Amino acid sequence: MFKPKVLVAFYSRNSSTELLARAIAEGAAGEGAEVRLRRAREVVSPAVMQQSPGWTERAEQMNARYEAPTEADAEWADAIVLGTPTRFGSISSELKVYIDGLGGLWFQGKLNGKVGSAFGATSSLHGGNESTLLSMYTPMAHLGLIIVPLGYADAAMFKAGTPYGATHVSKLDTVEPDSEHLDVARFQGRRVATVARALRGTPNGVTVA
């Protein structure tokens, strides 16, 4: 059986988006995928980071756990799942820098036909989760990715998440994703891996009956 390759590239300052990313990776791996889990790096100076208590320390800890995403990771992948905390209802600058760096692959057409999916987290209720996920699908369309949302294709979707992707509200970083939100993230990983296998598992993406 074809083993799809899934890149989960995310930015997380605290842990909400990171935990969703890990659950998505777990779901994809459970579906037989080979997974690369990558964290985008900060784009502001150390002086700016030090103004927010704990930011520097948490960044160092996460960067020790995860490599930074690269162009090579995106070219390797059959599916690219992008995750971000909301920044004023849109994607974080840290993850956007990574996406913008894929222009060379875009120009060569090397991302056309890969699966794309999105997830994210906010600090406050109604803080922009859905608008953020929708904003992430715009560059995916430009890159030529085949966008795979969640819909309501699993029972987990009737308890948490959004039809656009897994989400979480951390309530000012006091609440971690619970089992229901992590179930949605695992479903997203399974769904992405399944679609990637269907698209890439046979010559020219054609399913043979």
Polypeptide structure, described:
42% of the residues lie in helices and 15% in strands. The protein is α/β, with parallel strands linked by helices and 209 residues long. Strands 1, 2, 3, 4, 5 and 6 form a 6-stranded parallel beta sheet that branches. Strand 1 (5-10), helix 1 and strand 2 form a beta-alpha-beta unit. The protein is globular, with a radius of gyration of 16 Å.
What attributes does this structure have?
209 residues; alpha/beta; six-stranded parallel sheet; 8 helices; globular; disordered C terminus
Individual helix count = 8
Amino- and carboxy-terminal Cα gap: 15 Å
Helicity range of the residues? 40-55%
Number of strands: 6
Q: Can you write the helix and strand succession as a string? A: EHEHHHEHHEHEEH
SSE class = alpha/beta
Rg from alpha-carbon coordinates: 16 Å
- Beta-strand residue percentage: 15-25%
Estimate the global geometry from the Cα principal axes.
globular
Largest sheet: 6 strands, parallel
Low-pLDDT residue spans: 204-209
Query: What value does the average pLDDT take?
Result: 94
Topology:
Layout lengths: L4 E6 L5 H15 L3 E6 L6 H4 L5 H11 L5 H6 L2 E7 L7 H8 L2 H6 L6 E8 L6 H15 L2 E2 L19 E3 L9 H22 L9
Parallel strand pairs: 1-2, 1-3, 3-4, 4-5, 4-6
Helix pairs in contact: 1-8
